[in-house]
Amino acid sequence: MKILVINSGSSSLKCQYYVAQKSVASLHIERIGEAQSRATLQYAEETHIVSKQIANHHEALALLVELFKSERILEEFHILDAIGHRVVHGGEHFSKPVKITPEVIATIERVIPLAPLHNPSNLEAIHAFAAHYPTIPQIAVFDTAFHQSMPAHAYHYAIPLELKEKYAVRRYGFHGTSHSYVAKEAAKIVGKPLEALRLITLHLGNGASAAAVAYGKSIDTSMGMTPLEGLMMGTRSGDMDPAIIPYLVRNGFEIEAIETMLNKASGLKGICGTNDMRDVTVRAEEKDENAKLALVMYVYRIKKYIGAYTAAMGGVDAVVFTGGIGEHASKVRSMVCDKMEWMGVELDTEANKKAVESGGMISTQTSRVTLLVVPTNEELEIVRQCEKVIDEI
User: Fold this and answer.
1) Smallest Cα–Cα separation from 206: which of 328, 303, 320?
2) Residues 6+ positions from 13 with CB-CB distance below 8 Å
């Protein structure tokens, strides 16, 4: 099948063109709405850059079409089997990808309060493509969908139930497309059906989340109603005492300033001034005390979630590292696995170092728990999910 994958942000548009599950070309348009926008096209091992003003997502789509046609990547868009959209939040309404209809759009609009920075941008791209190519099926693939299999005791907060019913206050989880993809890939590497495995998947990037995937279903994940809950991240705080917020308000902080601080000035950045794990590890090795503290805090949170999810699933068969940090930071992986022999974790030090380039198995032959590095590919997962929807139409 020929599928265009779209990831639309408030001022950006990323797309990849797939033919038979192989990426043919990618385009990243940045700074939409600014005086000077930038489009970077990668095709046939070449890179083309265009700088011009792009006022909105409709103009971004026009540029996409122009570049794909001029480079003869896709001269006729009507031959596409589908356009797959990454949609951040589907609330409780979507547990799988769906063909986009007016009813689906209305539902995505209703959950905008749960993702005010993301869902409107996702809808911009959906409307732009619908206006120009109304006959091409558009598919929504939701970040939250994979975690809709969480049981009630995992997704409820211990607050008055009416808040969930009236304001949809509950845990949703994110990075679902990535967790779904690496869980399936891990099962292939292990050589067992996904439905026979208990996995802990660790998506570690600037945003970070853990998921407990028991026998093919997500039963818990570290992010909650928003991506702020859970692991310590690049600029997000992760888990903290909620009473800190009213305490800061009583001490003169504005609620908007607190929200910005927790999302954009906390995590690694809040402790040592940078959210780049590469810088953190170098500085920690140079005996920078704040960097050492940030690194130990980061790893400690991951260890706690591994322990908790192992208990929740009654054991674990494999731990999977993915995301920018999970795939490339061998130091972080070795620290996470240190002193975990009690639960059957044995790290192969040499394999761990080599996995930075290629991924693969990083546990010893005698390790009871398999350790894996699996590069994530959310776009390919979107393609695969789109193909299933198309087959069912």
Assistant:
1) 328
2) 6, 7, 27, 28, 29, 32, 57, 60, 61, 64, 125
What are φ and ψ of residue 351, in 5° steps? Answer: -65, -35
> Is 64 found in the same domain as 184?
no
Task: Give dist(CA 51, CA 38) in Å, integer.
Answer: 5
Helices (H), the chain: 57-70, 102-110, 119-132, 152-155, 161-167, 176-190, 244-250, 255-264, 267-272, 277-285, 289-313, 323-328, 330-337, 349-358, 378-392
Read off the DSSP letter of residue 72: T
- pLDDT over 90 at 6, yes or no: yes
Contact 57, 32 (CB under 8 A): yes
- Flag whether 324 is in a domain: yes
Predicted local distance difference test score (pLDDT) of residue 157 = 98
Clarify whether residues 124 and 255 are in a common domain. no
Distance CA 340, CA 288 (A): 26
Asked if residue 117 and residue 9 are part of one domain, the reply reads yes
Cα separation, 65 vs 49, in Å, equals 15
Look at residue 346 and tell me if it is in a domain. Answer: yes
Number of structural domains the chain divides into: 2
Scored b (16 or more CB within 10 A) or e, 226-249 reads bbbbbbbbbbbbbeeeeeeeeebe
% pLDDT > 90, the chain: 95
Name the residues annotated as catalytic: 143
What distance in Å separates the CA atoms of residue 315 and residue 309, rounded to the nearest whole number? Answer: 8
Beta bridge partners of 23: 18
Q: What letter does residue 172 receive in the DSSP assignment? A: -
CB-facing half-sphere around the CA of 31: CA atoms within 13 A: 11
Mean pLDDT across 157-184: 97
Q: Burial code of 23-43, b = ≥16 C-beta within 10 A, e = fewer? A: eebbbebbebeeeebbbebeb
User: HEC profile for 91-150?
Assistant: CCCCCCCEECCHHHHHHHHHCHHHCCCCHHHHHHHHHHHHHHCCCCCEEEEECCHHHHHC
